[in-house]
Amino acid sequence: MKKLTLSYGWTIALLVAIAFPFVSSNEYYLSVVTLAIIYAIAALGLNLLTGYTGQFNLAHGGFMAIGAYAVGILTVDYEWSFWSAFVVAVLITMLIGLLVGLVSLRLKGHFFSIFTLCVGYIIFLLIEKWESLTHGVIGIMNVPTPELGGVVDFYDGKAQYFLALICLVVGIWLMNRLVRSIVGRSFIAIKNGDSLAEALGINLMRTKILSFVISVAYAAVAGALYAGYVRFLGPDMAYVSTTFNIVMFVLVGGLGTIAGPVIGALLLSSLTQSLQFLADYRMLVFGPLLIIVLIFIPSGIVGLWRRFLTKKTMA
Questions:
Q1: Which pTM does this prediction carry?
Q2: Is pLDDT at 230 greater than 70 in this prediction?
Q3: Cβ-based neighbours of 126, under 8 Å, separated by 6 or more
Q4: 139 and 233 in contact (C-beta within 8 Å)?
């Protein structure tokens, strides 16, 4: 019965997502939701590492920026096609993630988080200062949109929306398969305790690195899509605020759930945009709202919904 309810829920959500561009006559709303979907992909990756494996990576936004800049540099400076650059960007980000993971994952708890925070800041500084490669503070402009043999015009907002949606749906499906597999259960065992995982015969380092690399791969996909959609890249993309936003998406939506990061990204992105009229003062509203949610709903929106369903079933 529970699986059937979840299946209906995902089906309804997908149908609403497909219908949205056709019922929304405002291009601005379409743009907001498209960006929210892109960030939801990145949030899914962070949720795998933090929500399922228990490792809090504070460089996630930096890895998203690596994916975006790889696409920007290869397409603008070297005139690669978008999709070739897309694949290479993901592979480069995974390789860098592997190298970072080999060092950082030897640390535990807060030490790991602090180390990755430093890594994220180093990524930001490299993007800002390495002008010969990244164009520095000027940024990379006119990143080409994806192409599909002239069949689909990706200059159109709806086409970009559906491209992001397809990537999100595939990402959710793959993530669901992963966390329900034996490998996924190994991730959860590590989250519950290294000693328990070792007692079960799990190779801690290898499993943590696998989770880290898959996590940054999701960030790279999001970054590549962002580059093709926004078409301008600046160093601020790698700043800690990007990681902070993604962390909030995961926490508010529901840590350790598949739907949580998606719900959090869509809800908070919409809320942020609705408060734009407050300019720099919008955080005076947004910040306390987040604090209230985290205090009274620590398990996130999905956790709250699950408790409601449990009480309803018991009643």
A1: 0.93
A2: yes
A3: 134
A4: yes
